[in-house]
What does this fold into?
Amino acid sequence: MEKFDPDFALFGILTASLLPGIEIGDAVVDYANESSMRLYGELRGKTIGEIIYEVAGEKKAAQEFVYKLGEGMPITLEGRLNKRYVKFHSTIVRYCLDDSCGTHRFIQAGIMDITESVVLKKLLYGTSEALKRAATAADEDTGHHVTRINLYSGKFAELLKLDENFIDDIGNYAQLHDIGKIKVADLVRLPRKLSAEEFAEVQKHTVYGAEIVAGLDGLEMARDIALDHHEKWDGSGYPNGKKGEDISLAGRIVAMADVFDALVSVRPYKPSFTYGHAYKIMTIGDDRVKPDHFDPELYKIFVNNYEHFTMMHKKMHD
Ligand SMILES: [Fe+2]
It folds into this structure.
């Protein structure tokens, strides 16, 4: 009970207040605390409609809320919630009209579950952001590169129709693909061509990156991305020469995003290419890039949606 975020007591007020025959007060007190009681006090004089409107922030959202609640559908609330009492949006996973099933507690349990996962995600994404900042501080040349990789990768996941969690995760963890460069920063900054030995050491940024986030709950995808983002579909990549679906899906997505961004951006070893030229290289190939390097399904999506990716680059170029 103590773990329940006071801000989310608002959901208790909303759900309980819509149960037929139950006084709002009775339902709320059961899992209220100081903050929710204060809030309840503020909202007490209002009608249910007004409270929903207050929470949802606009009429259409309020109507949708009532409809979904009536249908027992999952509800996600956003909008003014963030600016007022509730810090994160939440989903009410279960709505039960039958009082005999311990409705109040049941609803609360559902909300708690989602609340915790939302809070956890927020903390993990914050960790990802902090790691990214640490890594980019050591490698200032990357500019907006890492942020763009987040955007492209999220778009890929969206176009692949992957679930929302995957889309959010890859959109927040793709930026950690080169986190391991922090261990080879001196080599990466050298203004000359690297020796074969030095280059082999730089390639280990994949393994170093995976080690940095290894064994941390919730950061498994970040680990996959760091380790696999230079693997190639045909097995010619590094560090493990993985082939096809042995490469994690997140790794395959970020690999493609990373190659595209490198082509259309300036690198110490090359100028930035035009979008047309980059397209040609990715579809025909050159001495470094071959179409066989990419997951064919992703490749198809990339080619069919090339404009999306060029627009993202245009919006956030260095
Ligand atoms: Fe890399």
About this structure: The radius of gyration is 25 Å. The pocket of fe (ii) ion is lined by residues 177-178, 205, 229-230 (CB under 6 Å).
